[in-house]
Every structure is written in structure tokens, then in C-alpha cells.
Amino acid sequence: MKLYTKRRGLQEQSEFPIKNSIVHKELDRLHNDAFKYAWAAYEQQNAQSANIGAMKNLRDRQLQSGAVTAASQTQQQVQKLLDMNK
User: Fold this and answer.
1) Do 62 and 70 touch, CB atoms closer than 8 A?
2) CB 3.0-4.6 Å disulfide test: which of 8, 22, 37, 86 passes with 16?
3) pTM: predicted TM-score of the whole model, two decimal places
């Protein structure tokens, strides 16, 4: 940054934009990659959470209808999904 400031001198940002520097472009690339991977992880976690919620509702309906074996199997699937999130 000091070198950039020194080289820019009295020039304005519009005349000597820092966004065109290799450091700035690399930081943008790193930030964009980090955001992309974080967003993908967020979407995956929310999809699993939605699945877990739906499966718990199914389990409850199965229990209410007397399908205890099916409810037990559904609960095992819920637990597998929960274990994957750890």
C-alpha cells in the first residue's frame, strides 16, 4: 500500500485505480472463492435442515397412525442426517 500511495502521488483514484493492482485482484478472487464455498455450505446445510424437519413431521404422523416400525426407521434416517452435520 505504501508503494502504491507513493507511486500514485497526486493522481486521483480514477487516474491510478488501486482496483487494477494485482494485490487487489487477488484479494477479490480470494474473497469471491470464500463466499462461493460458504454459500454452497449454507445451502447444503439448509437443505439438510429442511429434510430433517420434513422427516420429523413424517415420523410424527407415522407415530400418530400407529406405524411404529416405519417411525423408527424414519427416526434412524433423521439421526444419520444429524450425525452428518457434526
Assistant:
1) yes
2) 8
3) 0.49
